[in-house]
Design a protein that fits this description.
Elements: E1 2-3, H1 10-17, E2 22-26, H2 29-37, E3 44-48, E4 62-67, H3 81-91, E5 92-102, H4 123-126, H5 129-143, H6 166-173, E6 180-187, H7 198-208, H8 218-221, E7 222-230
Length: 231
């Protein structure tokens, strides 16, 4: 199995303990250092690299590629997501599976501002990119705490976010030579989502669950996309 990006090695370590032969790849040397402290074994290897250009010798090497990264997924972050999926397909054996989980760009926290800037839901739906950038920069200057968000890349919709949506993922896999491809849409409001009080969700969730199947509205009311592709 290939865990990419493996981050601090949480999933790679658990899979290796379960007996799988695992390679973990990440671009961050700091995260890989933490991963290696979790423990290494003959069936677990960590490599520093870019998932847009995986090692050439990995062609048709893996039975499965996991794009999970502590359940938040990083499919929405690479500057060239089409190139990434091509690389994933290259390193998979025929019949191998790609398993990924990630949020759509327009889900309530899709702008990734919640943990450090604002708890306002759907900010990048209500406000344009330039407005949000100016607002964040103004707040950061007022705080004067030394923190700055990652620099923008040319194709980013916001900081390190490529703007992946449900619609764009479907378009990306449509027409490719795949044995099978399925995408499950996890509802925003659910007893499975630890962000919400479970007892409240028993009453509210059933009313919102059908929205994950309504085009356009599902971009706002889907918590995670779960992708399962067989080469």
């Amino acid at each position: 199995m290939l865990d990419v990006p493996c981050g601090q090695g949480r999933h790679a370590h658990l899979l290796a303990e379960a007996g799988y032969d695992v390679d973990g790849l990440d671009y961050s040397a700091e995260l890989l250092a933490v991963a290696r402290k979790r423990g290494t074994a003959r069936n677990l290897r960590y490599v520093r690299g870019d998932m847009r250009k995986l090692p050439a010798q990995w062609t048709k090497r893996f039975d499965a590629v996991l794009n999970l990264f502590t359940s938040f997924g990083f499919f929405a972050h690479p500057s060239d997501d089409v190139r990434v999926i091509r690389e994933f397909a290259r390193v998979l054996k025929p019949g191998g599976r790609l398993l990924a989980i990630f949020p759509p760009f327009y889900h309530p926290g899709g702008a990734h501002l919640e943990s450090w800037m604002s708890r306002m839901p759907w900010p990048n739906f209500f406000f344009g990119r330039e407005t949000l950038i100016r607002a964040v920069q103004d707040i950061m200057r007022e705080r004067n705490d030394g923190y700055q968000p990652h620099p923008m890349r040319p194709r980013d919709k916001l900081w390190t976010l490529n703007g992946t949506t449900i619609r764009s993922v479907r378009a990306m896999i449509r027409g490719r030579k795949l044995r099978s491809a399925s995408m499950e849409l996890a509802p925003l409001f659910s007893t499975m989502n630890e962000k919400w009080a479970r007892w409240k969700m028993r009453y509210y969730a059933p009313f919102f669950r059908p929205l994950r199947h309504v085009p356009l509205l599902n971009e706002l009311f889907v918590h995670r996309m779960k992708l399962d592709i067989t080469k």
